């Protein structure tokens, strides 16, 4: 599994631990208890809730323990479009973030090498958005894209945007927000890969008469794959579950709801806890499957 | 320190098994899983039973915890709370004022398990919105108040705020501030777009000139209530407001969304869409109009009651079964039903006051404010407001699902 694969990076220690399982167990205990309380308990609770049946009392928000797989069928039937949209948005935003981040990471990691001040400055700039709350930054974009804002007016005046259409509330605005918010998570892992890139290999490529493009595809890119893989995972997974950008209170509109918004509405507004839980379980399962297939297909288990 | 194993073969076997068990990873994981399952089951709310009020300790304990909304108490910006502090001085009751409610649903999610148990939910009095109050009444979560302790309320409650079938005498819940739904519009932009001074009916909002410039509040009972009224449905009457009528109104709004007439349906943040010009008109609340005008520093927005009528609701005081300070809470309610105090509060929070006589008090101190119909509505305005009828649990679930699915889009 992908998450296991992620953890194997530094675990190849050669010295076997002495057989003192009691000590090991005690040392592991805090972590185990933590996982049990804060990961396993909610997970089990989620699965149990996702199978509950409506209460006979007819009171809103009351459900009885049961085994109702129909909750899953209902969730898919009712909210299929939002599920597909979530993964569509996540994929688009991840690809966009990769395309934007790679050159940045390459510049900082390779071109700016040997100029520590410039490198530090650029890295700070990449991280700088984190100094301001993610909600506030998304709010700022909402203002920038608002209907009476200069950007919208300009696009309308040059005819790129019909006069009765606006930016905010569209898929474009949501994907823009998602891409923008997750670029640092893509840039930093790629940067750490490229930072270690041995430039002599690139020189060797050109010595062997490979075109720059070919050298990039045959040498640089494969060597940076571990960074690309972890970067895409770090963006794709949270984006699939994001509900802030797509929320109608931020950049979203009437037909941009993602799975996170559906879960929020079902949990808080309708008090339909089984459907909300079924959707969460499915989102988790889908991500685990997608990610394991991805890691397997890209053949990078050893690189991670 | 390992001790030698016992001689008895059976004991020996047991000790060996116990030692293996102790360090077996699988056993540890199994145990962990079991504990997790037990914990998750334990965290769920118990089945409903008939609840009884907690013993009232008001005579010995002069304290009161009050959950309320932000921007809902005078002197909030500097923390001075003039009216509340005067109450504490007069009665000796120490009020812990907490701005805990910023959304009915999320607040309710936090307190509902204690409410269901009849245990102390962490507040003695709170002011959720009427539809949530209706739900709490239906579930039997609320204590019946004693009118004898609230003479001001008996004398001064505006008749438009009298309760519905759930609580006709307003003894389970007492309005704190009123909320009137109608059309909020940008005066200048509306005139530019349509050539008219002000909208008068919902049909004006659906006019083609406003395509893409209309907002809706995501509060089901206001947005759909106004729509239902415009379709001739009596929203106070279960025989008129049926599920079919409701679904027809949802379909109507859905059509306005897909045709692009409606720009967005939002919670409180619809105000930003008005101030930054995203929308020209909105189905929203009167109280916000005053606040929005104050924010932009000019008389930019107007509010009208459509000719087919407006929705009315309120945020109401309720006392949960688990509260041990009912009499203290009644004293507080009685205090805020004194027109002098109500006027002082209304002048600050800008919502509609449900207290008769507050306007006359306000005329003495601030005539301009007293004549603001959004805070002290005229008789004429109040004659055309209607309260959304209470829904049964199943209706509420089905209505809310239909409305939320509309909000989530296809």
List the keywords.
heterodimer, A: 304 residues, mainly alpha, MetI-like fold, two-stranded antiparallel sheet, 11 helices, disordered N terminus, B: 410 residues, alpha/beta, D-Maltodextrin-Binding Protein, domain 2, seven-stranded mixed beta sheet, three-stranded parallel beta sheet, 44% helix, globular
Give the SSE layout.
The complex is a heterodimer of chains A (304) and B (410).
Chain A: H1 2-7, H2 21-50, E1 53-54, E2 63-64, H3 70-111, H4 116-127, H5 134-144, H6 150-157, H7 171-195, H8 199-207, H9 212-241, H10 259-269, H11 273-297
Helix pairs in contact in A: 2-11, 3-7, 3-9, 3-11, 7-9, 8-9, 9-11, 10-11
Chain B: H1 9-23, H2 25-42, E1 63-67, H3 82-91, E2 94-98, H4 104-117, E3 125-126, H5 130-138, H6 151-156, E4 173-186, H7 187-194, H8 202-205, E5 214-217, H9 220-230, H10 243-258, E6 262-266, H11 270-275, E7 281-285, H12 286-296, E8 301-304, E9 310-318, H13 326-336, H14 339-349, H15 358-365, H16 367-370, H17 379-382, E10 385-386, H18 393-408
Parallel strand pairs in B: 1-2, 1-3, 5-6, 5-7, 9-10
Antiparallel strand pairs in B: 4-7, 4-8, 4-9
Helix pairs in contact in B: 10-18, 14-15
């Amino acid at each position: 599994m992908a998450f296991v694969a992620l953890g194997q990076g530094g675990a190849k220690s050669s010295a076997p631990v002495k057989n003192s399982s009691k000590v090991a167990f005690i040392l592991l205990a805090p972590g185990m208890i933590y996982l049990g309380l804060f990961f396993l308990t909610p997970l089990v609770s989620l699965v149990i809730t996702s199978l509950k049946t409506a209460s006979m009392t007819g009171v809103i928000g009351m459900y009885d323990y049961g085994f109702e797989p129909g909750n899953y069928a209902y969730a898919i039937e009712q909210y299929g479009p939002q599920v597909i949209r979530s993964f569509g948005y996540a994929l688009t935003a991840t690809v966009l973030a990769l395309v934007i981040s790679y050159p940045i990471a390459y510049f900082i990691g390779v071109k700016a090498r040997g100029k520590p001040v410039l490198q530090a400055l650029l890295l700070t700039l990449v991280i700088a958005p984190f100094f301001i709350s993610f909600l506030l930054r998304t709010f700022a974009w909402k203002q920038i894209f608002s209907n009476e804002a200069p950007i919208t007016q300009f696009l309308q005046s040059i005819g790129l945007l019909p006069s009765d259409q606006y930016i905010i509330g569209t898929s474009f605005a949501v994907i823009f927000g998602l891409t923008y918010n997750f670029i640092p998570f893509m840039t930093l892992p790629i940067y750490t890969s490229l930072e270690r890139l041995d430039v002599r290999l690139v020189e060797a490529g050109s010595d062997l008469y490979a075109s720059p493009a070919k050298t990039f595809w045959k040498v640089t890119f494969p060597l940076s794959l571990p960074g690309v893989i972890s970067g895409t995972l770090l963006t794709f997974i949270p984006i699939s579950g994001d509900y802030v950008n797509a929320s109608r209170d931020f950049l979203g509109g009437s037909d941009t709801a993602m799975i996170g918004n559906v879960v929020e509405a079902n949990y808080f507004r309708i008090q339909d806890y089984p459907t909300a839980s079924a959707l969460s379980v499915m989102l988790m399962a889908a991500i685990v499957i997608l990610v394991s297939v991805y890691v397997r297909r890209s053949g990078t288990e050893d690189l991670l | 320190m390992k001790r030698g194993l016992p001689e008895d073969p059976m004991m020996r076997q047991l000790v060996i098994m116990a030692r293996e068990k102790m360090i077996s990873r699988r056993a540890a994981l199994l145990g962990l899983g079991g504990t997790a399952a037990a914990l998750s089951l334990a965290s769920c709310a118990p089945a409903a039973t008939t609840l009884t009020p907690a013993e009232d300790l008001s005579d010995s304990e002069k304290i009161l915890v009050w959950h309320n909304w932000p921007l809902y108490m005078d002197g909030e910006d500097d923390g001075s709370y003039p009216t509340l502090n005067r109450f504490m001085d007069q009665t000796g009751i120490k009020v812990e004022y907490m701005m805990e409610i910023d959304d009915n649903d999320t607040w309710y999610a936090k307190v509902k398990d204690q409410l269901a148990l009849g245990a102390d939910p962490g507040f003695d009095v709170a002011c959720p919105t009427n539809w949530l109050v209706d739900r709490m009444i239906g579930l039997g979560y609320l204590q019946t108040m004693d009118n004898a302790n609230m003479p001001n309320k008996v004398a001064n409650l505006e008749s438009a705020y009298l309760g519905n079938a759930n609580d006709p005498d307003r003894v389970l819940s007492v309005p704190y501030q009123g909320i009137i739904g109608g059309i909020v519009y940008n005066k200048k932009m509306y005139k530019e777009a349509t050539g008219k001074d002000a909208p008068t009916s919902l049909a004006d909002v659906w006019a083609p000139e406003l395509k893409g410039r209309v907002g809706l509040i995501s509060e089901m009972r206001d947005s759909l209530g106004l729509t239902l009224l415009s379709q001739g449905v009596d929203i106070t009457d279960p025989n008129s407001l049926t599920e079919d009528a409701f679904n027809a109104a949802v379909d109507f709004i859905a059509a306005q969304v897909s045709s692009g007439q409606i720009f967005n349906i939002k919670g409180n943040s619809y105000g930003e869409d008005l101030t930054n010009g995203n929308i020209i008109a909105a189905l929203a609340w009167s109280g916000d109009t005053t606040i929005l005008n104050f924010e932009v520093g000019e008389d930019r927005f107007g509010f009208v009651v459509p000719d087919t009528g407006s929705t009315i609701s309120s945020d109401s005081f309720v006392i949960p079964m688990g509260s041990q300070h009912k009499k203290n809470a009644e004293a507080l309610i009685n205090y805020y039903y004194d027109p002098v105090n109500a006027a002082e509060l209304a002048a600050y929070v800008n919502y509609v006051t449900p207290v008769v006589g507050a306007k006359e008090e306000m005329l003495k101190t601030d005539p301009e404010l007293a004549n603001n119909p959004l805070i002290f509505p005229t008789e004429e305005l109040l004659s055309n407001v209607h309260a959304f009828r209470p829904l049964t649990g199943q209706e509420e679930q089905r209505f809310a699902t239909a409305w939320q699915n509309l909000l989530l889009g296809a």
